[in-house]
Write a structure and sequence with these properties.
- The complex is a heterodimer of chains A (487) and B (642).
- Chain A has 19 helices and two strands.
- Chain A is mainly α and 487 residues long.
- The radius of gyration of chain A is 21 Å and the shape is globular.
- Helix content of chain A is 77%, strand content 2%.
- Chain A has one domain (5-483).
- Chain B has 642 residues and is mainly α.
- Chain B has a domain at 582-641.
- In chain B, 73% of the residues lie in helices and 4% in strands.
- Chain B has helices spanning 3-25, 34-59, 91-114, 121-140, 144-162, 169-200, 205-210, 212-216, 219-236, 245-248, 254-263, 268-275, 277-280, 284-307, 311-331, 335-362, 380-394, 400-415, 418-446, 452-461, 469-484, 496-501, 516-541, 553-560, 565-593, 596-611, 619-641, and strands at residues 67-78, 81-90, 489-490, 494-495.
- In chain B, strands 1-2 form a two-stranded antiparallel sheet.
- In chain B, a hairpin with a 2-residue loop joins β1 and β2 (81-90).
- In chain B, α6 runs antiparallel to α9 (219-236) and α16 runs antiparallel to α17.
- Chain B is globular, with a radius of gyration of 28 Å.
- The chains are: A mainly alpha (487), B mainly alpha (642).
């Protein structure tokens, strides 16, 4: 056995994040309170920007595909695209979190956890074997468990972290179990080698059971029905900036690795997993959107909405290259929308001093025109209204499904979208409820300026991608082509 | 500068104005409110200058190549289907571009004076700029999807501006009414576009027009498409039977009535039919329908205008009647006559509205003409300008409105069949009505002894002249235009307008252009008809508000209640819809949608309690569900394999 060559360049976007985390642990020791927080913010922003810039530098290296660390990772444009989405989510999250009181005491730790989680997600998106997948998955999961429980003075936050830890561990166990089965059937952990083994014997019970368990484990991370049950509780209980990051970045990384597993490791079993995913998509879309109708807590509603969006995204997994392109575009749009929406909710919570509910938001749009307007844009984007990017994202997703022969999935998707209007518009209406126009004038919470900038920026991204999408679509198309060959 | 660049800049200027005003609004009171007004005007001036550049450059091109299509980017592409953000600049859109930006600029300037002191002036000017931007999207669109975007956006801006004074319940109700009726039109139009796409697989104008023969091969298909597009046009242009929103729309500020509900947006239906002439020329049935609706509409609106008492509503019904003339023109296949009347109408109708605005200002927001009278002594210049507008409206030769209306009637004569005769005689009868109601308004407002109200308010409000200069100069400029604009198309002498538009009318049928003799006959008859109306009005109302005669009772009621359209719609649509909504809430929403999600939640809770009475809530239940899910998945995969 030889020592593998390390392709530093290909790993640079992740190493920058990890390096930043290491620096921040020193900062936490050397500086105190606000100074520490401000330094941490600068380092965090620098790392996320650096990571995204590094991606643009290596975008064309090796014609967009490089095997790294003896094939444990494949850094292709697809992985790079996910890295950009994760970095963008992290950047917005940091801006949105700036005014959060907790960061005045533990700023460096928060940013360090965020950077580690982001690095883990990046690596998972590039994983090419179940070993690297598991290691990177645990890297970001453990960081997220800690982040969920970061507000140690809040029992909701602690409970959220604990729940996520317990249930997440079960998910991981199932995943590893499945990976072991696949190893037993094919003799390898690497996706490309598993593909050879599976192709030779696609009817192998061991491999099928393994794949089922792997899908269960990853299904937990992407939160599709019936593996979604942790989502509302954890999203609601976790500190809102953490929820924002989880909803955007975890989804991107988990979907990315799921696509990679499905198309590089087990394409030969497509006839088995495609119908299963189609059923899961239908159930998830309908169930999540119907349940969301009855939520009054906005975070919980957005959590069910997030599950519903995972349902739409499952459509992409059965739709080939066009599906992967639509998936990346959708994830990018969803990241901006979701982080933006949660950030606004976080400000509303800070200002009113209680959980954001439909009632507490009544008339709030009048006293906070920028934040209220941004939230309205996010809600419209989640509901898929033009000219927001949410419309185009859904359109490309549905079009890909129809082209791949899954017209019925697209129809269910449209029906679910119609149902979803019921709760998105309800929040929008509450925001601009004239009866509460004057009663909602509260002083703005400290640090709102940065969060407002974050929300405005995200709203501009959402509108911009909805009106001028060609560049990002081209980028998503290149990324999809690097993973899946055109039919 | 290329034509496309100039057109894009004209298009972007109002958007930039709107965004800039919104951004300055963030600065709060540190930025003077007046800044918004001047930014909006400047944006319009820039747009107008570029519109002129576009037209001059277009004129410099060969007649056959005066059609420039420019694609900015592809907005949406799925398979063979793609939608570009693209503009089409040709003779027709150049005319519209000039009218929208030119009249729009004057009305913006007028608004500076009119809206001074309003608390929400900035919002007003941002909306007004946004409206012009939307209107430019509409007229410059090079494909149906962009057209629909513009179509919807002008409807939205109209809604926002009608309801601008949102403290008034009547304004909010009027805004909603306009929005709903326009939504009906938008839906019709959208379905029409879907049909075009299904037949031809494209939504690009040029490709659709190239496939017109294919569409026209099946009479019912082309009739459906043209009919559905027409629904959009009828709603936007306030034509029968989708007209009831326009009089209520007068709840908006007067300059809005002038710009949106007289000069530009409401004429979009005329533009639509003229733009789609390659399609309509294959659908003679729909063309005849347009002529009939137009003739009935112009007569009905004229009759209603005779008895209304709100100064703005009278002008609003006049607008409906004049647009009906334009519909008759385009319905006859004489597309240029509709656009010609659209252009001159923009001048004299904006003039009348803005003059009415001066009157309303001078009387401290009084709009009831029974409270006016004798205003000539305080507002002589306004009175003169409005008389010019009124005579142009009444179709008196050689004012612009006369020449353009006559071109429509002459087209009716030229066709010579029953439809043409209907248009001609209906139009002449309408001209009499126009002369009557327009002069009634003028006599009642300006002649005779002033009412007590007018005597109490007018002297005080006109101490410093008739109004601010920003309000008066646009009125004078429009009065001048209303006089001279007809020069571009003078019977037997010049035909600049029809020659300019001729290449846009596709070769399905030769462009209808009346002979000089028919032109003169129509001009003579129509001027006489309008003159009779004016003279009769002078006899009846010449001494001011107290008219010696009244209408026969049933006709008066019919006219005052506007032919009962509102009542009809209330019972035909609102009442059944309200019942349906109540029933759905009672039988569907409450038992199904409000119960099912709760039941699911309650089940999870119950399962959690039964299985694991634990302080951490439902962790065990979740874990169990997770395990069951994984188990199910494994089982399914096994069964698949077996």
């Amino acid at each position: 056995m030889t020592t593998p060559v390390v392709q530093w360049g290909a790993l640079a976007p992740d190493l920058i994040l990890l390096g930043g985390a290491a620096v921040l642990l020193l900062v936490a020791v050397l500086f105190r309170d606000r100074t520490a927080r401000d330094i941490a913010m600068l380092v965090g922003v620098g790392c996320f920007v650096g990571s995204a810039v590094a991606v643009t530098v290596i975008w064309d290296h090796g014609d967009g595909v490089r095997a790294v660390l003896d094939g444990q990772f494949v850094v292709d444009r697809f992985a790079n695209a996910v890295r950009v989405i994760v970095a963008g989510s992290g950047l917005l999250t940091l801006m949105g979190a700036y005014g959060w009181a907790r960061l005045r005491e533990h700023g460096p730790e928060f940013v360090a956890f965020l950077l580690v989680a982001a690095a883990g997600m990046d690596l998972m998106a590039a994983s090419n074997s179940f070993v690297s997948l598991f290691v990177s998955l645990e890297t970001f999961s453990i960081a997220l468990y800690a982040l969920c429980a970061f507000d140690t003075k809040s029992s909701a936050s602690l409970e959220s972290g604990l729940k996520y830890l317990i249930l997440g561990s079960i998910g991981s166990v199932v995943l590893v179990y499945g990976a072991a089965f696949l190893y037993g059937a094919t003799g390898s952990f690497r996706f490309d080698e598993i593909a050879v083994g599976v192709a030779a014997e696609p009817e192998s019970l061991l491999a099928l059971a393994g794949l089922a368990l792997v899908l269960g484990g990853l299904g937990f991370k992407i939160a599709v029905v019936p593996f979604h049950m942790w989502t509302p509780d954890v999203y609601e209980g976790a500190p809102t900036p953490v929820t924002a990051f989880m909803s955007a970045a975890t989804k991107a990384a988990a979907f990315a690795v799921l696509v990679r597993v499905l198309v590089t490791a087990v394409p030969a079993m497509g006839d088995t997993w495609k119908p299963a995913l189609a059923v899961a998509a239908i159930v998830t879309m309908l169930f999540a959107n119907v349940v969301a109708l009855r939520q009054t807590n906005v975070k919980r509603m957005l959590a069910y909405s997030s599950v519903g969006h995972a349902g739409y995204l499952l459509m992409a997994l059965v739709s080939g290259q066009a599906g992967a392109k639509a998936l990346l575009f959708y994830l990018a749009v969803y990241a901006a929308t979701s982080v933006g929406a949660f950030t606004v909710v976080a400000i509303a919570e800070r200002e009113t001093g209680r959980a954001a509910t439909i009632d507490s938001l009544r008339g709030w749009g009048f006293s906070r025109p920028v934040l209220g307007g941004a939230l309205a844009i996010f809600l419209l984007s989640l509901a898929g209204f033009p000219p927001t990017a949410g419309f185009l994202a859904k359109l490309y997703l549905f079009a890909a499904a129809i082209d791949a022969g899954y017209t019925y999935l697209a129809l269910v998707g449209v029906a679910a979208t119609v149902i979803s209007l019921g709760y998105y518009l309800r929040v929008g209406l509450a925001l601009y409820d004239r009866r509460h126009e004057s009663g909602s004038m509260l002083p703005s919470a400290p640090g709102t300026a940065w969060a407002g900038t974050c929300a405005a920026l995200a709203a501009i991204v959402v509108l911009w991608l909805g009106i001028y999408p060609p560049d990002v679509l081209d980028w998503a198309g290149q990324a999809a082509a690097s993973l899946i060959a055109a039919p | 500068m290329s034509i496309a660049t100039a057109a894009w800049l004209a298009y972007a200027a109002p958007l930039a104005g709107c965004v800039l005003i919104a951004l300055l609004g963030l600065g709060g009171e540190r930025v003077p409110r007046r800044a918004a007004a001047w930014i909006a005007c400047l944006a319009m001036l820039v747009a107008f200058v570029f519109a002129v550049v576009v037209t001059v450059q277009l004129e410099g091109l060969e007649e056959t190549s005066r059609s420039v299509r420019s694609v900015a980017w592809t907005w949406l592409a799925a398979g063979d289907f793609h939608v570009d953000n693209s503009i089409l600049v040709d003779q027709l859109s150049a005319v519209m571009l000039l009218v929208v930006t030119g009249v729009g600029f004057l009305i913006h300037v007028y608004s500076v004076g009119y809206m001074q002191g309003d608390r929400e002036e900035r919002r007003y000017f941002a909306y007004l700029n946004l409206f012009v931007f939307s209107m430019l999207i509409l007229v410059l669109a090079a494909n149906f999807v962009v057209l629909l975007v513009g179509w919807g956006m002008v409807g939205l801006c109209s809604y926002l501006l009608i309801g601008f004074w949102h403290q008034r319940p009547s304004a909010v109700a009027a805004a909603k009414k306009a929005f709903v009726m326009n939504a009906v039109g938008d839906i019709g139009m959208a379905i029409g576009i879907f049909m075009i796409f299904r037949q031809l697989g494209t939504v690009d104008y040029i490709e659709v027009f190239a496939g017109r023969a294919e569409l026209g091969a099946d009479t019912s298909t082309i009739n459906w498409i043209c009919g559905l597009l027409l629904i959009g046009g009828l709603a936007k242009s306030a034509q029968l039977p989708l007209h009831t929103w326009l009089p209520d729309a007068m709840e908006g500020p007067t300059p809005v009535s002038a710009l949106i509900h007289a000069a530009t947006m409401v004429t979009a239906g005329v533009y639509l039919i003229a733009r789609m002439n390659p399609l309509y020329s294959y659908a003679p049935d729909i063309q005849h329908l347009i002529v009939v609706l137009g003739v009935v509409g112009l007569l009905m609106a004229g009759l209603i205008a005779l008895t209304q008492t709100d100064i703005k509503r009278i002008i609003a019904f006049s607008t409906m009647s004049q647009i009906a003339y334009m519909f008759v023109g385009v319905g006859l296949g004489a597309y240029w006559t509709g656009i010609y009347h659209l252009t001159t109408h923009a001048f004299f109708k904006a003039l009348l509205f803005m003059g009415a605005g001066v009157v309303i200002h001078a009387l401290a927001d009084q709009q009831d003409i029974r409270q006016m009278g004798g205003l000539h002594r305080w507002l002589p210049k306004t009175s003169l300008a409005m008389w010019i507008g009124t005579l142009a409206l009444a179709g008196i030769f050689p004012l612009s409105g006369g020449l353009s209306k006559d071109s429509i009637l002459a087209a009716g004569l030229e066709i010579g069949n029953g439809w043409g005769d209907l248009a001609f005689f209906g139009g002449v009868a309408g001209a009499v009505l126009t002369g009557l109601y327009a002069s009634r308004l003028m006599f009642t407002v300006f002649r005779g002894p002033p009412s007590d109200y007018a005597a109490a308010h007018a002297p005080h409000h006109t101490e410093h002249g008739e109004g601010p200069r920003t309000m008066l100069y646009p009125v004078f400029i429009l009065a001048a235009l209303a006089v001279v604009a007809g020069i571009v198309q003078f019977p037997g002498l010049s035909h600049v307008f029809s020659s300019w538009l001729e290449p846009v009318v596709y070769g399905a049928v030769p462009m209808l252009e009346p002979s000089a003799s028919n032109d003169w006959i129509a001009t003579g008859v129509a001027t006489a008809a309008g003159g009779i109306g004016v003279i009769v009005a002078a006899i009846v109302w010449g001494h001011g508000r107290s008219a010696p005669v009244s209408f026969p009772r049933p006709l008066a009621v019919l006219s005052e209640r506007r032919f009962f359209w509102d009542e009809l719609y209330h019972y035909a649509f609102y009442v059944p819809a309200a019942w349906t909504a109540v029933a759905l809430r009672r039988f569907v929403e409450r038992p199904v949608f409000l119960v099912v999600p709760d039941a699911i939640g309650a089940f999870a809770l119950l399962a959690g309690r039964t299985l694991a009475p634990l302080q951490t809530g439902l962790v065990r239940a979740y874990a169990l569900a997770f395990a069951l899910g994984v188990g199910g998945l494994v089982l399914y995969f096994m069964v698949q394999a077996a």
